[in-house]
């Protein structure tokens, strides 16, 4: 049954523009009513503006602001195609959500999109009032897939460059490693789930070819944060993985690496879930499971439940 929902087998290197158009049409059909405002911070200098869309929940239950970096392999996805997911995120958490529209590869390869997101994070941590936060402790970095990669790397960059990191981050099935070849990858999930379901080994390779054409550069910790030599001093972290996702094991390995470096980390594996599930409708069991854990994390409660990765693993 799950294979029926697998993504069509496209050559992302050739068809990424087609995928973008398809995503835009599909998102337009699902576009919900929402309360939003737009503003453009200046993360680098007066010449570069990064659009951010701000979503308010109907019922505000928390003062936290979730700064969201969308997925799409650094190549697809944008502020419009992720609007349904961001509306759902605001409603299910009761938090304001700030969605970042970073530049995409291959038109803007590494590190363009990363620097856009880093710049926005810097602005909001330095000036949290821009999104209605009382202080930087209420600014939480969130990302799924490639966006989870950005959130992880931004926390690394902030520490390396001597700036204040966020207090908390949520990484949803993040990309943390560079090797997704089933013959050489250190992760079993790459071999178990890289051929049949929502995201394949070949598609990840295509995305990397567009985002980081230089294969040696893919080992840079700013591309593959799992390879960072020092992961100390990171935010309290929630890592959410999907059972049937080829990125599952590298996400959980990143959680273990953060914990080994002395950080506070919780991981949660959503059973039966595919890559990309955070964009499913709110009645999806995977979405319900994930947001139950996200809300517990936002409240400072421990992650519990039968779907959770065992504590001894992290």
TrEMBL record:
One of its GO terms (molecular function) is hydrolase activity. Residues 66-278 form the Alpha/beta hydrolase fold-3 domain. InterPro entries: AB_hydrolase_3, AB_hydrolase_fold, GDXG_lipolytic_enzyme. Pfam families: Abhydrolase_3 (PF07859). Gene3D superfamilies: alpha/beta hydrolase (3.40.50.1820). Keywords: Hydrolase. PANTHER family: AB HYDROLASE SUPERFAMILY PROTEIN C4A8.06C, ALPHA_BETA HYDROLASE FOLD-3 DOMAIN-CONTAINING PROTEIN-RELATED. This is Alpha/beta hydrolase. The lineage of its organism: Bacteria, Bacillati, Actinomycetota, Actinomycetes, Micrococcales.
């Amino acid at each position: 049954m799950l294979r029926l929902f697998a993504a069509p087998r496209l050559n992302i290197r050739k068809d990424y523009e087609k995928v973008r158009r398809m995503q835009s049409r599909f998102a337009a059909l699902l576009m919900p009513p929402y309360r939003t405002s737009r503003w453009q911070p200046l993360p680098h200098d007066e010449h570069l503006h990064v659009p951010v869309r701000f979503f308010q929940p109907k019922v505000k239950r928390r003062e936290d602001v979730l700064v969201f970096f969308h997925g799409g392999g650094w190549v697809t996805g944008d502020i419009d195609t992720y609007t349904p997911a961001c509306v759902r995120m605001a409603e299910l958490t009761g938090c304001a959500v700030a969605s970042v529209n970073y530049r995409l590869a291959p038109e803007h390869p590494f590190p363009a999109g990363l620097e856009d997101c880093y710049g926005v994070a810097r602005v909001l941590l330095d000036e949290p009032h821009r999104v209605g936060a009382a202080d930087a402790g209420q600014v939480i970095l969130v990302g799924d897939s490639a966006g989870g990669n950005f959130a992880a790397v931004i926390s690394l960059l902030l520490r390396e460059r001597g700036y204040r990191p966020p207090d908390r981050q949520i990484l949803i099935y993040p990309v943390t490693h560079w090797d997704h070849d089933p013959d050489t990858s250190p992760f079993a999930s790459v071999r178990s789930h890289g051929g049949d379901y929502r995201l394949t080994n070949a598609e990840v390779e295509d995305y990397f070819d567009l985002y980081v054409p230089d294969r040696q550069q893919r080992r840079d910790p700013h591309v593959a944060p799992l390879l960072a030599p020092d992961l100390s001093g990171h935010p309290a972290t929630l890592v959410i993985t999907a059972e049937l996702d080829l990125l599952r094991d590298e996400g959980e390995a990143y959680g273990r690496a953060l914990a080994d470096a002395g950080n506070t980390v919780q991981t949660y594996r959503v059973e039966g879930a595919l890559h990309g599930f955070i964009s499913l409708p709110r009645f999806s069991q995977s979405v319900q499971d994930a947001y139950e854990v996200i809300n517990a994390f936002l409240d400072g409660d421990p992650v519990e439940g039968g779907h959770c990765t065992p504590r001894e693993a992290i």
